[in-house]
Amino acid sequence: MSTVSTKPYLLRAIWEWCVDQGFTPYLAALVDENTRIPPGYARDGQIVLNLAADATGQLQMENEYISFQARFGGVAHSLVIPVANVIAIYARENGQGMAFEPALEAGEEADVSLVEDADAAGAEDVAEADAARRQEQAPADAPPRPPRGSHLKVVK
Hints:
- It is built from three helices and seven strands; from the N terminus they run αβββββββαα.
- The chain is α+β, with helices and mostly antiparallel strands and 156 residues long.
- About 17% of the residues have low confidence.
């Protein structure tokens, strides 16, 4: 009998804790070919999503996937996030939560660049669409914004 990962159970527990405390649960995930999100919303191969009850519909946190419906720009979309791609779940108000290392495919070795590589497999198209959308929306005379670092830390 194979052992099921503790990660989906921890995700559900922290989500429930956030809701019970009146906090807004946020989920950070890597974007790849198995992640279904609206194009143009990933940044650096990652996306941060609001999982509050008033921001999602039909939220299902299963052992393999997290699925729900959410509005982006006023348009409803169905999202599917593999649990293996989740890198953090936390309360927006105080940052309390848990960070995870991304799951590796069989035969892969641990490599920190997997999290930091914006051109990871499957994320390239989404990242390009996001960059194009931001460039179209930015005023022509506005100076470019410096890249922001993540406030999350990977805990080993």
